[in-house]
């Protein structure tokens, strides 16, 4: 079956612009996670959804970052007023209740 | 605070040689333990996981890992490395409730030479 998909696969933007990153989880997976992978910081957790609610937003680095999930399915991560330090690979993962996480291929974001 | 340490940033092994990648964790209770592999430009693929029970777990691609509570370790092993195993390997932990974010180590990059 289909795995976790993310779009776009690559995004180049200018500093100060807003970007939206999309994640389509595996159908039926109730949990959805966003992570960021950067050279200096490794893999960092950003936010976790259970259904449409986000019980854990502790990893969002600033108020420029937000995310939502609708219909217990698709999630969008929005970065406002992008900065160069936001350049990274943004990974999405989904899981059934209490199981391990399946990862998408990631979105490579480059802020010029 | 929870943390995962992978002490080896980069390892080079010869094809056909054995491999052991180290992972130590710091956690309040026995966590769920995972090894993921990431090939260049790809997402993370689960190699194996430990939730409970037998401390020696088998994974895909011929990998295995052993959980040692006394050492807070979960080392990954493979008896004979193939060139296609060259990738980045990440050890991760999660709360045993299961629905919590993963805490990752910094990763170990594996190079395989002929």
**What order do the SSEs of chain B take from the amino end to the carboxyl end, as H and E?**
EEEEEEEEEEEE
Proportion of helical residues of chain A: under 10%
Computed Rg of chain A: 13 Å
User: Which range best describes the helical content of chain B: under 10%, 10-25%, 25-40%, 40-55%, 55-70% or over 70%?
Assistant: under 10%
Mean pLDDT of chain B: 93
What class do helices, strands and sheet pairing of chain A give?
Answer: mainly beta
Q: Give the percentage of residues in beta strands of chain A.
A: over 45%
Global outline of chain A: globular
Number of strands of chain A: 11
Written overview of the protein:
Helix content of chain A is 0%, strand content 53%. Chain A has no helices and 11 strands. Chain A has strands at 5-7, 10-13, 19-24, 31-38, 42-50, 53-56, 65-69, 75-79, 88-95, 102-103, 107-111. In chain A, the strands form 2 sheets. In chain A, strands 2, 4, 5, 6, 9, 10 and 11 form a 7-stranded mixed beta sheet that branches. The termini of chain A are far apart. The mean pLDDT of chain A is 93. Chain B is mostly beta strands and 114 residues long. The N and C termini of chain B lie far apart (41 Å). The radius of gyration of chain B is 13 Å and the shape is globular. The A-B interface holds A 4, 31, 33, 35, 42-43, 45, 48, 50, 56, 59, 91, 93, 95, 97-106 and B 32, 34, 36, 42-46, 49, 90, 92, 97-107.
Short note summarizing the structure:
The complex is a heterodimer of chains A (112) and B (114). Chain A has 112 residues and is mostly beta strands.
Outline the fold blueprint.
The complex is a heterodimer of chains A (112) and B (114).
Chain A: E1 5-7, E2 10-13, E3 19-24, E4 31-38, E5 42-50, E6 53-56, E7 65-69, E8 75-79, E9 88-95, E10 102-103, E11 107-111
Chain B: E1 3-5, E2 10-14, E3 19-21, E4 24-26, E5 32-38, E6 44-50, E7 56-58, E8 64-68, E9 73-78, E10 87-94, E11 103-104, E12 108-113
Parallel strand pairs in B: 2-12
Antiparallel strand pairs in B: 1-4, 3-9, 5-6, 5-10, 7-8, 8-9, 10-11, 10-12
């Amino acid at each position: 079956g289909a795995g976790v998909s993310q779009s776009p696969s690559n995004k180049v933007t200018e500093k100060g612009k807003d970007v939206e990153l999309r994640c389509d989880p595996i159908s039926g997976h109730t949990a959805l996670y966003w992570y960021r992978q950067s050279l200096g910081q490794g893999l960092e957790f950003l936010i976790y959804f259970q259904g449409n609610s986000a019980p854990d937003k502790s990893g969002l680095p600033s108020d420029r970052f937000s995310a939502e999930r609708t219909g217990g399915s698709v999630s969008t991560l929005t970065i406002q007023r992008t900065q160069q330090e936001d350049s990274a690979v943004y990974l999405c993962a989904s899981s059934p209740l209490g199981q391990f996480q399946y990862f998408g291929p990631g979105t490579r974001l480059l802020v010029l | 605070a929870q943390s995962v340490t992978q002490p080896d940033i980069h390892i080079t092994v010869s094809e056909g040689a054995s491999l052991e990648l180290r992972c130590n964790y710091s956690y309040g209770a026995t966590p769920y333990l995972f090894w993921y592999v990431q090939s260049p430009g790809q997402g993370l693929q689960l190699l194996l996981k430990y939730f409970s029970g037998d401390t020696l777990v088998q994974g895909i691609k011929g990998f295995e890992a052993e959980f040692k509570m006394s050492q807070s370790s979960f080392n990954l092993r493979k008896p004979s490395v193939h060139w296609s195993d060259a990738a980045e390997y990440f050890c991760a932990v999660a709360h045993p409730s299961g629905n919590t974010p993963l805490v990752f180590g910094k990763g170990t990059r594996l190079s395989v030479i002929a």
